[in-house]
Amino acid sequence: MAMKILDECIACGACLPDCPTESITEGDPYVINAETCVECEGHYDSPQCVSVCPVECIVKAE
What we know:
Layout: E1 3-5, E2 24-25, E3 31-32, H1 48-52, E4 58-60
Antiparallel strand pairs: 1-4, 2-3
């Protein structure tokens, strides 16, 4: 499974430095590459992008 950034993204960039697989790219909204996103497994206890997002716009992709 991977994470997904919703349209509510304000493009603040808070998530970029915390992604251990560099799966997030800038855009409007930002985009998470589902092929490389590992939900921070093996790196952190939970997805770091979710914990740093000020507008809570990052969710699990379905």
